[in-house]
Amino acid sequence: MSTATSSQAPPQPKPSALTRLLAVPNFGPIAAIVIAVVFFASQSDRFLTGGNFSLIVQQVMVVGTLAIGQTLIILTAGIDLSNGAVMALGNIAITKLAVDSGLPPLVAIVLGLALTAGFGLLNGSLVSLVKLPPFIVTLGTYGIAFALTHIYSGEQTISGLPHTLTYFDKTFPLGDTDITYGSVAMLVLFAVAWYVLRQTAAGRHVYAVGNNPEAARLSGIDTRRVLLGVYTAAGLIYGLAALLLVARTGVGDPNAGQTDNLDSITAVVLGGTSLFGGRGSVIGTLLGALIVGIIRNGLQLMGVPSIYQTLITGILVIAAVAVDQFNRGRQK
């Protein structure tokens, strides 16, 4: 009588607790926030106050809103160097149309949003239809938007704004803390972006194009339309960031927000979105923006010079990109 022997593959070792923990979505940014909060709370009695946390959110609401649009573009494996300059142009357009041209504030806002969305449409057309690299396209439109801002403004700051333009700087009480409507508006935009990306077909197409554009095309996704829509939507979001910037500063300043393109990329990277596309979330971007805001606020309370804030932020960005590269190599 013969016996049949069967070979079975050895059981796979169970992942360690640390591995399972690292697999939790947004674990890295959340851990960074917790560590930063604990550290700065031990260094300053003013850090753990409602007023200070409200201030942190106010300080990141403009860059955070910009970073929503930046996230959409980076998810498609692109990048937008023009968003800070486009926001500044929208800022000047809205304020100058309302003050110097005498247009109703709501009309000025609509025209400003149309202008920034138009820049997004231009970026998207050059990337999706002409097939130019996003880095080069947005570097070019950065220069265009920067120049138009200073030409149109005449290097002058626009003041005396109607109350409609500064509405989002108004506050309402939440317990003992005053919360600005601009902070709420930013959180609402994050919630809308999260829903679109995670719960709609359009959002799934964004991830598919960023993960593998050729496979997405072969599966029937119109990749050119997706890219065009993403860049145009991002431009519209930059206009909303311009409106929040107007409310935050109370003036139309041609120099405000010009370097926020780098801060928006920083927030996206720290939030765990891959620069290679196809992986990440806007919730991570919100956490990334809060990381930067918490670190800068905590260091200010400690009396640390601002140049060290920039130094630490740069180190964190390099570390985040290195982790992303390591994860990609491990997955391959």
Describe the structure.
With 332 residues, the protein is mainly α. It contains 13 helices and 2 strands; from the N terminus they run ααααααββααααααα. The chain has helices at residues 17-22, 27-43, 50-75, 83-99, 105-128, 134-153, 181-199, 201-211, 213-218, 223-249, 260-270, 282-301, 306-331; strands spanning 171-174, 177-180. It has a two-stranded antiparallel ribbon with strand order 1-2. α3 packs across α11. The longest helix is centred in the C-terminal third of the chain and has 27 residues, at 223-249. The protein is globular and about 75 Å long. The mean pLDDT is 90.
The amount of beta strand, in percent, is under 5%
- Level of helix content? 55-70%
Distance between the termini: 47 Å
Secondary-structure element string: HHHHHHEEHHHHHHH
Which regions have little confidence, pLDDT < 50, spanning 5+ residues? Answer: none
Helix and strand composition category: mainly alpha
Strand order in the sheet with the most strands: 1-2
Q: Kindly provide the radius of gyration, computed on alpha-carbon positions and rounded to a whole number of angstroms.
A: 22 Å
Average pLDDT for all residues = 90
Shape, principal axes of CA atoms: globular
Task: Give keywords.
2 strands; two-stranded antiparallel sheet; single chain; 13 helices; about 325 residues; mainly alpha
What layout of secondary structure does this protein have?
Blueprint: H1 17-22, H2 27-43, H3 50-75, H4 83-99, H5 105-128, H6 134-153, E1 171-174, E2 177-180, H7 181-199, H8 201-211, H9 213-218, H10 223-249, H11 260-270, H12 282-301, H13 306-331
Antiparallel strand pairs: 1-2
Helix pairs in contact: 2-12, 3-7, 3-10, 3-11, 3-12, 4-5, 4-6, 4-10, 5-6, 5-10, 7-8, 8-10, 11-12
